[in-house]
Amino acid sequence: MTNIHQFDFSGLRALVRVDFNVPFDDQGQITDDTRMRAALPTLRKILSDGGSVIIATHLGRPKGRDPKLSTALIVPHLKELTHVPVIHCPVSRGAQAKEMAQALQPGEILVLENVRFEEEEQGKLNNPDQYTNEEDLKAAKADLKERQKAYAKEMATLADVYVNDAFGAAHRAHATTALIAQYFAADKKMFGMLMLQEVEAVQRVLHGAKHPFTAILGGSKVSSKIDIILNLMDKVDNLIIGGGMAYTFVKAQGGEIGRSLCEEDKIDVARDIMERAKAKGVRLLLPADTVATCDFANNAPAETYPTNQIPADRMGMDIGAQACADYREVILTSKTILWNGPAGVFEFDNFARGSEAIAQAVAEATRQGAYSLVGGGDSVACINKLGLGDEVSYVSTGGGALLEAIEGKALPGIVAIDPNYGK
Questions:
Q1: Is residue 83 part of an annotated ligand binding site?
Q2: Is 21 annotated as contributing to ligand binding?
Q3: What does the pLDDT read at residue 246?
């Protein structure tokens, strides 16, 4: 596989698929440029070599063209970040895109229009309801599949080299994240620097972990983490459960959880997971105590109860002090740590203490020599809020992509460049 660090981009046009799906305020100003800054090392490498960059990215979830989701909005800030000429192309395909790409000079960046303005990017019909019978719908989908291939092939003609640096979209088999790679020779397609870091971080946790290995899983639903738990069961020594999903496990043990979040149809699954953990010698930790309220609100009066004795009129909002202490003790004895998902209702400041305690413990363990991978929106938000981003080993930019990678799935955007990934 071609390595970007050894590749010379001099005189070449590089089509770089990035994930610049950044948030905007009502005035159209970018409120968080983390994803843009994460791609800068790749862009700088290409430009400093004497190459030019063609940026392909999606923005939001448009159904056709939407001026509020035009990539023209990211051009001013990209100029500030790169200090080079940045030109916007109002399309991502066709004669104008081809002409502007060919006119691009070394050291310049061309930003193509939002690739999701084209139905072919995702291969999903914008208006499937317009088809009144199943045969017409089936024919439309088949036609779109062929058009998707054609779109990818057309995009490939814009550049000499393809660089995928969009880990956040690597789990999607879209035209510019996966299909396009087949139209470049093996020595003309590669991962960007961000993608390399992400892939190496996942591989280190799943296939090169030092023990004890502790996985901390939070979030609201067991159903969204079942595959992750099952894939990790043969790899971890400790499995810490937090967030709303913990109450399904507690109820599976016969505990009283009041009005706490619970997936009734997953109680048997939770029971099975606990039995598997016991059989494999994996220590599965549930919160000993819970901070509970009568109302789902930041300022709701709260009291702490044993997690299996929550009153009928109350709901769990965060893990308690004893759970924080228990989890901290395990984390500090770990050599590898994976954290995905908050311990409580992190969006409420009064119920973020459990997540913050975990973040502090993960950072402390990292300072003591552990390898820590943090991923998932709320976990990353917590780490960044506390200013601990530089005190853990790696903070992933991928949400869904990271989850699917941890589940052991082959990510289309990665396999398209490295068919041996994960083998």
A1: no
A2: yes
A3: 95
Here the tokens at position 421 are 């990934």
Tell whether 104 is in a known binding site.
Answer: no
Residue 377 confidence class, pLDDT cut points 50, 70, 90? low
Does the annotation flag 316 for ligand binding?
yes
Distance CA 87, CA 37 (A): 18
Domain identity same for 286 and 400: yes
* Residue 415, pLDDT score: 93
Q: Rounded CA gap, 303 and 11, in Å?
A: 65
CA–CA separation, 45 and 238 (whole Å): 40
Is 172 one of the annotated binding-site residues? yes
Residue 398 labelled as part of a binding site: no
If asked whether residues 351 and 394 sit together in one domain, one would say yes
Short-list 13, 97, 18, CA closest to 47: 13
Out of 221, 259, 328, 335, which one is annotated catalytic?
A: 221
Averaged pLDDT, 332-353: 93
pLDDT of res. 423: 60
pLDDT at 421 over 80: no
Give the residue-averaged pLDDT of 170-187: 95
Q: Tell me the residue range of the domain where 386 lies.
A: 200-407
Helix, strand, or coil (residue 315): strand
Which CATH number characterizes residue 347's domain? 3.40.50.1260
Predicted confidence (pLDDT) per residue in 24-71, tens digit: 888 888 988 888 999 999 999 999 999 999 999 999 999 889 999 999
Q: Is 377 annotated as a binding residue?
A: yes
Among the listed residues 255, 389, 400, 422, the single catalytic one is: 400
385 is catalytic: no
Which of 155-169, 211-225, 262-276 is predicted least confidently? 211-225
Residue 76 has pLDDT above 80, yes or no: yes
**Does the annotation count 168 as an active-site position?**
no
pTM: 0.87
- 126/261 same-domain check: no
Which is catalytic among the residues 64, 94, 208, 377?
377
Same domain for 227 and 366, yes or no, is: yes
User: Is 63 a catalytic site residue?
Assistant: no
One of 35, 188, 235, 314 is an active-site residue; which one? 35
Q: Is 377 a catalytic residue?
A: yes
